[in-house]
Amino acid sequence: MELSSLLHELHLSSSEKPLPSAPLPPITELLSRLQEKLIGVSSDSETSSLIGRVERLFQTADPDWLFSPASANEDGGQAALESRCEAVKLVFAWSLLQVTRPSLSPHLPRLLPPSLLLTDHYRPENCMLGVRCLHHIVLNTPAADLRQFNRAEVVYQALFKHLYTTEAAVIQLVLSCLLDLLLVLETPPSSLTPSSARRKPCRHDDVLRLVLTHMEAENKVPMRRVYASVLPPLVDRMGVAVCRHLQRLQRVVLGYLEIKDPPEETNRLKVLEVLQKTTRAAWPRMEGRVNTLLRCLLRLLVDVSSDSQLDDSVRHELTNQTLSCIRLLDQGSGGPVQVSLVQVSLTCCWSVGLHFCSD
């Protein structure tokens, strides 16, 4: 039976007319046909029409046909039921990811709830699938439609609680989605003009505060890399409002610069980038922290210069980024860095200090 005729007969059967005489194929077979049909469509209107008909099908179809409870009691029935559930989940996600702006917005009331349910699943793979669906919805739905009926706030709360997870793959997707969702919910503090109202604490502060808190106590390398990769854009969006988090941010910078991350030293490079952004944005508040930060940066230069296992390109990048941080600290604090560097007596740092002073 063709997919179009099957959908038509099932739609008719939702009324008081008799059921179709031909036996219905399994739901998994119907979903496979739906996938082939969606791949072959040539326009957004056809896609929307087909998704609408399938939506009506799931609303009106017999539950015993969708998920037969009797089949679970038969031999192998539970496995068949689980395979149906897996098929429904994957086809839903695949179908959603094919719909882009502006065709997605009219179907938002039907697409958002299943995506939220997937994010709440106890299995990490299902949770990740739900977060991918939510991220696709955020990227392909107008901000006004997301804010309508407080949808964006619901998505934010659903994602925020996943920041407490210990799965690196899950939290990486969650943080990436949150960065895009925050732009829908509010204006970043760095985008506010000097003449605007006082910068009050916002959701950006809540996310940054929680990320920094987790970074301080985290000892798993994959999690540390995920946090370090998301920290630069967060600090960049905060702008001068990062002053509210300087004490905690300083502890994170010092802790991450002390620990190696071979072979590419991703964590150290990202944290050096964070230090540069922070110094540029909050330079009036950095003078009292110069001595502590300078000591850590000089120690980093010693470690990099004495580490024979580092690749030359990585060593060169670390050295350049560290020197850039020292220059910014010197400019922001009014020059005490050069005075401190002249007093450095460590042989391995002396050439670096002279090179900096000559610049």
From TrEMBL:
Pfam families in UniProt: Tti2 (PF10521)
Identification of the protein by name: TELO2-interacting protein 2
Record-level GO cellular component terms: cytosol; nucleus; TTT Hsp90 cochaperone complex
Species in which this protein is naturally found: Scophthalmus maximus (Turbot)
Encoding gene, per UniProt annotation: tti2
Gene3D superfamilies: Leucine-rich Repeat Variant
Family per record: Belongs to the TTI2 family.
